[in-house]
Design brief:
Elements: H1 3-18, H2 21-33, H3 37-53, H4 61-82, H5 85-100, H6 102-110, H7 116-134, H8 136-140, H9 144-160, H10 165-173, H11 179-183, H12 188-220, H13 224-234, H14 236-252, H15 256-269, H16 273-281, H17 309-342, H18 346-358, H19 367-380, H20 386-401, H21 413-431, E1 441-444, H22 448-468, H23 473-481, H24 494-507, H25 511-514, E2 516-519, H26 523-540, H27 546-552, H28 554-571, H29 575-587, H30 594-600, H31 608-622, H32 625-641, H33 645-655, H34 657-660, H35 667-686, H36 690-701, H37 706-709, H38 724-732, H39 743-767, H40 780-790, H41 801-814, H42 817-825, H43 838-862, E3 868-870, H44 871-878, H45 882-894, E4 900-903, E5 908-911, H46 918-945, E6 950-952, E7 955-957, H47 962-975, H48 986-989, H49 1000-1011
Parallel strand pairs: 1-2
Antiparallel strand pairs: 3-5, 4-5, 6-7
Helix pairs in contact: 1-3, 1-13, 2-3, 4-5, 4-7, 5-9, 7-9, 7-10, 12-13, 12-14, 13-14, 14-15, 18-19, 19-20, 20-21, 21-26, 21-28, 26-28, 26-29, 28-29, 29-31, 29-32, 31-32, 32-33, 32-35, 35-36, 36-39, 39-41, 39-43, 41-42, 42-43
Length: about 1000
């Protein structure tokens, strides 16, 4: 056998003796699998070299726990640098799991408690999270995942840090700590000594093996180089041992270069005991202990800080003494300031007020601090009279409005209360006096006098500079500072001079000038802004909370203040501003029923109808177009709320609001129009005017956006997307909750009205006569709901209002009017109708209408099956008097709804079976198809040209007369004709026919039937 293979074989055997049994078994398996002996040896050689490079390290339980904790902390700190909050959260949770596990707790408690580096990590992380959350601008730019992680980290830290609160507090008091304190711990040296012993024993075994290998190599081969090369290639540990033996032999030769090389080798491998002893005796390495001594890096040692408890106690005592001195100085300053405030003159107050006002709007100024200063000045100005107090109060009110930064914010309740108190003080000052000539009034502030005074002072100063000539600068300054009173000749200060000039100016004023207070700002604008802030607060506060009820109490105070300001503007002949105040009062009163007003006023009877009428009349005369429109809508609403339907309808028709409401351009006014039409429909329903009620309510209730039309909420439609700005604008337009119209009541009135109209219509269609071919659907909404109810496989007992009405409809179609009346009169929504005995009146009206419509439905459905009907029998069936039955049957005969005649002697109805001829049927079909074709062509033309045609009495018109047609339908709806009201939405208002169906001719037909 070649010596090359023998050398490899011997070296592999020697190296395999150091390997574990597992590695040897693997090499044997490889030898069996591969048939080639040389290939087996090469595989064995590579496997042995790889296995010998692996080094096993013995670690204690404490070391493993602390290393896991340090690794988590290192990852968190790296994530903190790049602001990766999700990574911070995950690694923080891992570190907390490590610390909170039962095994780790036992290890930590055994070795002196929670390590200090972990407490430092918690403090740094807490400060970091707090700082990040303060940066609102950066927080808004974060993704959803990062934002949630940051918020969760704040909550988790707050919860978990309670356990380490005491340790964190101690660390924050003394954060300076050396690295030795963190590395050391009880029993740390013992564990590290065990590690050192294990390493030294392993090194000793390797040295002995290397010596055996070198002896066998010298005896087995003549060339030492070949044996050394084979041993170096067989294992990395043997090569390191050879280097160490060569370095030791060179050191015995006492060569300086070899000593340097041996020192460097010792520093890298730490295998020489002699050098370690010399380093342990002195130098920087003498301070290293345990594991730090064996690390292959330069360790920087910090000096341990010794706590000076005595010095700390002295520092605390000095700090307490300094705080006491500062507090005493602050108290003294406050007392001096109070004394100075008591001695302060009106001129000084005005000067300080101007200084504070000039700082408004500047960068870095605190608005609340400015407000606090102005409120303090306003309290000091009371003793100087209204001419000094009122201007400062106006500046204070302006500063209070400055606290509201955006449109979506609203003024806090305490600030609003303070603001209305300031305005009440202004209004009370303006009302003082027995006669109008003795009362104060407000005027615009004039700054010309101040400018003239400043110019005079500057001119005098320049004259002095010219007169001085060659005098020094110090003398010139002295002459400028010295001020003399021209009356007494005594020197005076600038404040004294300003006060003297103020008094002289007031003395030279006339009585009218003295009663006019110059102010900055407008009282009417302040009142409008105050009212808007009150409405915004009602929109933002939860309507189901006690705060909302408490906030409503402020409305009476606001109305009283509006009345005072309204009377003031009437006195000073400012009619336009008085009209604005009158409109504000109307908008706070129009929606209240008299019963509620009487209870709020404590039993005092107030004629609200006369009050609203007077205020609206004043607005009609002096207000703007927008004010007039809103006042008219509120007036109609108030009439309809108190069941004055005819007066409300007449006002609507005379004002022609239905002609111009689409061109108003103000969405809030359009919303008020929809609220007015809804209330008008409810009033018509309470009075039994079913057709009018249905026409007023059909357009509002026909779609799913009735909440938006009435500004009582936002509708969620998955097919339409709204931008953030649109949603904010809709939220700003919402009506406060106490002004809402109950939507359940509106739905009940609409569906019941549609039921009274549709049930006879459906019966006539089912009867199948020729006259029924001309009858069209009145309410598609009702038909849809009824069809859905009939298609249900299982219909349980009614739960919602819609279910009750559908059950009542089925009973009425069958002729069971008593069940229908029981279902409808038992609805709980009738308790929401305001007024005395309102529920009883509505129930009585419903029963009467059910009887009449039941009679009509019976005649429609069964007239074809009878030759004659007895009047008395009909009276018994529907519990009606003979006059009522006779009247309703006669109306049906006149309108040709039934073909019959009266037999007066026998009191019977003689029914005639009249069927249309074939020619008549064809003519009717042709007319109906022609009308449908014309309508389809008109719609196609509208879609192509963009013009929306409207049919009136003279034909089709377009362009500028489009709005006229839109309003004509509204007027017809209010009068009981046409197709019903449209909402403010332009795309809905431009239709030719409403959802109620039918054209103008059909509307006339239904009007005749409903009015008889």
């Amino acid at each position: 056998m070649s010596r090359f293979w023998a050398a490899n074989e011997s070296s592999s055997e020697e190296s395999s003796s150091d390997e574990s049994s597992g590695s040897s078994s693997v090499s044997e398996d490889n030898n069996r699998k591969v048939g080639n002996a040389g290939g087996n040896r090469w595989l064995e050689f590579s496997d042995d070299s790889d296995s010998e490079e692996e080094v096993r390290v013995v670690k204690s339980a404490k070391t493993r726990t602390f290393e896991s904790l340090e690794e988590s902390i290192r990852k968190v700190r790296n994530a903190m640098k790049i602001k990766d909050y999700a990574t911070i959260q995950s690694n923080y949770e891992d570190s907390m799991k490590t610390v909170s596990s039962s095994k780790s707790k036992a290890i930590i408690e055994m070795h002196g408690g929670v390590p200090r580096f972990f407490i430092r990590f918690l403090c740094d992380l807490e400060d970091y999270i707090v700082e990040r959350k303060k940066d609102k601008a950066a927080f808004k730019k974060l993704s959803a995942t990062q934002g949630r992680a940051l918020n969760r980290m704040g909550l988790t830290l707050k919860k978990n840090n309670k356990t380490f609160e005491k340790l964190m507090k101690e660390y924050r008091e003394n954060p300076t700590v050396s690295d030795d304190d963190e590395a050391e711990g009880p029993d740390l040296e013992e564990e590290e000594d065990d590690v050192i012993k294990a390493k030294s024993s392993r090194v000793a075994v390797e040295d002995s093996d290397s010596e055996d290998e070198s002896d066998s190599d010298e005896s087995g081969s003549s060339s030492s180089s070949s044996s050394s090369s084979s041993s170096s290639s067989s294992s990395s540990s043997s090569s390191s041992d050879d280097d160490e033996s060569s370095s030791s032999s060179s050191s015995s030769a006492s060569s300086e270069e070899d000593k340097a090389e041996s020192d460097s080798e010792w520093e890298s491998s730490s295998s020489s005991s002699s050098d370690s002893e010399s380093d342990a005796e002195g130098g920087a390495y003498s301070q290293l202990k345990g594991r730090a001594l064996w690390l292959k890096r330069n360790t920087v040692v910090k000096e341990k800080v010794v706590k000076d408890k005595e010095g700390r106690g002295k520092a605390r005592a000095e700090a307490k003494a300094a705080a006491a001195v500062a507090k005493a100085e602050l108290t003294a300053k406050e007392e001096d300031a109070k004394e100075n405030e008591e001695e302060m003159s009106a001129a000084v107050l005005n000067r300080k007020c101007k200084e504070v006002v000039m700082s408004r709007g500047r960068r870095g100024t605190d608005t609340r601090e400015i407000l606090k200063q102005l409120e303090k000045l306003s309290k000091l100005s009371v003793k100087f009279g209204p001419r000094v107090e009122i201007p400062i109060l106006m500046h204070t009110i302006t500063a209070q409005f400055d606290l509201v930064r955006t449109l979506d914010d609203y003024m806090e309740t305490p600030v609003w209360t303070s603001c209305i108190q300031h305005l009440e003080r202004v209004a009370s000052v303006l009302e003082d006096g027995d006669k109008d000539s003795s009362k104060y009034s407000l005027g615009p502030a004039n700054t010309e006098d101040d400018d003239v005074m400043i110019g005079n002072v500057l001119s005098k100063g320049t004259n002095k500079m010219k007169d001085v000539g060659d005098l020094g600068a110090v003398n010139v300054a002295a002459t400028d500072v010295e001020l003399l009173n021209p009356h007494t000749g005594e020197p005076e200060t600038e404040d004294e001079r300003a006060e003297r000039l103020r008094l002289e100016k007031e003395a030279n004023m006339t009585e009218e000038e003295r009663r006019t207070i110059p102010v900055v700002g407008s009282l009417s604008l302040f009142m409008n802004r105050l009212d808007e802030e009150y409405i915004k607060s009602l929109q933002r506060i939860s309507s189901h909370s006690v705060d909302y009820i408490v906030r409503l109490r402020d409305e009476a105070q606001l109305v009283r203040l509006l009345t005072k300001v309204y009377n003031y503007f009437i006195r000073v002949r400012s009619m336009s501003e008085a009209a604005e105040m009158a409109l504000r009062r109307i908008e706070h009163l129009y929606y209240c029923h008299d019963t509620i007003v009487d209870k709020v006023n404590g039993g005092d009877i107030v004629d609200s109808a006369k009050l609203i009428s007077d205020l609206c009349t004043f607005v009609y005369q002096e207000g703007t177009d927008r004010s007039k429109t809103r006042a008219m809508l509120c007036h109609i609403y108030h009439h309809a709320l108190h069941d004055r339907f005819l007066e409300a309808r007449d006002l609507l028709l005379m004002s022609h609001l239905q002609d111009n409401i689409a061109n108003v351009g103000d969405v809030s006014t359009m919303i008020l129009f929809n609220r007015m039409m809804t209330t008008l429909g409810l009033a018509a329903f309470r009075l039994g005017r079913i057709w009018d009620a249905h026409q007023c309510l059909s357009e509002i209730c026909s779609g799913k956006n009735h909440r938006e039309l009435l500004a009582q909420g936002l509708s969620n439609n998955r097919f339409t997307e709204k931008s953030a700005e649109v949603e904010k604008a809709e939220k700003r337009r919402q009506v406060p909750y106490h002004q809402h119209i109950n939507l359940d009541l509106v739905e009940a009135c609409h569906l019941i009205s549609a039921m009274f109209l549709e049930v006879p219509n459906m019966a006539a269609v089912e009867e199948g006569s020729a006259s029924s071919r001309r009858i069209k659907i009145i309410s598609r909404v009702f038909r849809k709901q009824y069809d859905m109810y009939n298609r249900q496989v299982f219909t349980g007992p009614p739960e919602q209002i819609r279910d009750y009405i559908m059950c009542a409809t089925k009973a009425l179609i069958k002729g069971d009017w008593k069940t229908c009346a029981q279902l409808l009169t038992g609805l709980e929504v009738w308790n929401l109708v305001p007024g005395d005995n309102a529920v009883e009146q509505i129930q009585k009206m419903l029963i009467d209408k059910i009887k009449l419509e039941g009679l009509r439905t019976f005649l429609y459905a069964y007239s074809a099956h009878y030759d004659s009907l007895s009047l008395g029998q009909l009276c018994d069936m529907f519990d009606l008097s003979k006059n009522e039955v006779h009247s309703n049957v006669s109306k049906m005969m006149i309108n040709r709804e039934i073909h019959a005649s009266w037999d007066q002697p026998t009191e019977t109805i003689v029914l005639r079976k009249v069927e249309a001829s074939s020619l008549q049927i064809l003519a009717l079909q042709f007319a109906e198809k022609t009308a449908n074709l014309v309508e389809a062509n008109e719609r196609l033309l509208d879609a192509r040209t963009g013009n929306f045609y409207v049919k009136d009495g003279e034909g089709y018109k377009h362009g500028d007369q489009q709005v006229r047609g839109f309003g004509q339908r509204r007027s017809n709806a209010a009068a009981g004709t046409g197709t019903g009201p449209k909402s403010y939405a332009p795309h809905r208002g431009q239709k030719r026919t409403g959802r109620g169906g039918g054209r103008t001719q059909k509307g006339r037909h239904r009007q005749t039937r409903g009015g008889q």
